[in-house]
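Moderator note: this is an archived Q&A kept for reference. The question asked for a predicted structure of one protein chain; the sequence and the answer are reproduced below.
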Amino acid sequence: MILVDSSVWIDYFNGKQTSQTDWLDSSLGNTLIVIGNLILTEVLQGFQNDKDFKIARDLLLRIPFMSMGEQTIALESAMNYRLLRRKGVTVRKTIDVIIGTFCIHNQLTLVHCDRDFDPMVKYLGLKIIDI
């Protein structure tokens, strides 16, 4: 299963063509993609137009859903953040540590275009699709 980060979804809905959005476009309907509550929130909160919001919401609600807010994930995320800090890495957004930890914990592969995940690949074993 593959989790697509909000960074890719946002580019996708904004019509920005990247290798990640190209991968997403060709994979929808052909690859088992899942979405989590944090990503769903990050993506949908950015829509200003109600019509675009509803179109995106309807598409995203058809994707298998996983809750990312368990206590175990919170604790593991805090430990991972601390480990990265000891390695000299400061992740800019806590939510990215939660998403990365969630993927590691659930053995999901991540598709992203956000540099905050790079140290998680290097130091924590986060699996990504390298596009």
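Archived answer notes: The mean pLDDT is 97.
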